[in-house]
Amino acid sequence: MSTKSVDVVLIGGGIMSATLGTMIKRLQPDWSIVIFEQLSAVAQESSNPWNNAGTGHAALAELNYMPEASDGSLETSRAVKINEQFQVSRQFWASLVADGVLPHPETFINPTPHMTFVRGADNVDYLRRRYELLRDEPLFKGIEFSDDPKVIYSWAPLLVRDRQKDEKIAATRIDSGTDVDFGALTQQLFDYLVSQGADLRLETQVTNLKKVKKDGSWDISLRERVGTTPYGMNARFVFVGAGGHALPLLQKSGIPEIEGFGGFPISGQFFRTDNPEVVAQHQAKVYGKAAVGAPPMSVPHLDTRVVDGQSSLLFGPYAGFSPKFLKQGSWLDLPASIRLHNLGPMLAVARDNFDLMKYLIGELLASKKKKLDALREFMPTARAEDWYLITAGQRVQVMKKDSKRGGVLQFGTEIVTSADGSIAGLLGASPGASTAVPIMVDLLKRCFPEQYGGWERTLKKMIPSFGASLNSDPRAADKTLSATAKVLVLTR
């Protein structure tokens, strides 16, 4: 059935495939690359700017990266790790800007302060202790804390205006945060790939993956959405970057490494306003604290968004449930993914996550008025006529085997690769897009061990901190962050 053999096939037209394809083209320009996307354009699912928060996750404001332990203690390592990863992505983007691959950085990244806002005495105490730990970390240099309403008002007036004067509130702020339009970035990376000879095939569905025993390559069965004649292609390496649909495609591949993995889909909504009078009063991404039982991706936040040069505000997300693995997926996605090998872990997750189930049911039953009340906890002056609901992107959280509990629900991303490295896929959600570059570097190391040593020199040129920890070297951190910000036009 195969009519053509290529070096690399990328399945999915999102930020992950775009990042990996661009890296491979920079490292190994002679390799042939073909990309398959089942929709009529790239970046229409999770990478679409209105389907994600576009935060540029750096743990500057997201409290779920630094949770309070049962004994009340706090630990910075995960927050630092997430920040390190985002700095790697920023350095890679900066190298592409410097080389003319991404000539207009303002079209996909803009300076936007990151804030955390909490209410209540206990939360104020927690935020103060978090600040006291992070202010000494080089990557969090410049973080500020205040429990003074006047100071918080100067940072973000909509958080304070018309609020009860006796309410205990606190906030942190750091000026080096960003807003990222991953849709624009994805489109520009694919434009570069096509200009360098990559073959982008839209409205093309991958229906099956079969390993060729003779040489270890992959036969890929394909079907165009318009037309009835299936066809095939052979690839030496396959990356499944299809968002939530990566799980069923990896299951079709038959690799044993996917056994035990399941997917828990979560949908959601945001409130959005484009009213220029409201938008002009808020210039920040402000994260709060998640409700009990809520998944990390449901942490409430009031965000400045810059898309196509226009600013809007988003608030949410309001979590929901849908069995679809993609926003434009099938209602049968979840039941069709159930296998004997992942049924046990999935049942164990259902048993151990009652609070999550309760939270999701409550969100599903919430009226528009109740959702507006949640917005007013952040922004007391919010008017219903200024805001409208939009549907967020679909997220599929990882469920996998666990030796102690039978199965666990994992909030994060995970690379699944075959033993020979000929196929790999990415499962999971946040902080995904923001950490695409270090994720793909890890994938290259695992899947191309013979070539990786020869690539390290080029990787070092593209990512100056490659192989080192910025946070452990304050001088290097200052130098790298300053240089990157200058190239990406993030300095004020």
From TrEMBL:
Its cofactor is FAD. It comes from the Bacteria. Pathway: Carbohydrate metabolism; tricarboxylic acid cycle; oxaloacetate from (S)-malate (quinone route): step 1/1. The keyword Oxidoreductase applies. Its EC number is 1.1.5.4. HAMAP family: MQO. This is Probable malate:quinone oxidoreductase. It comes from Herbiconiux flava. The gene is mqo.
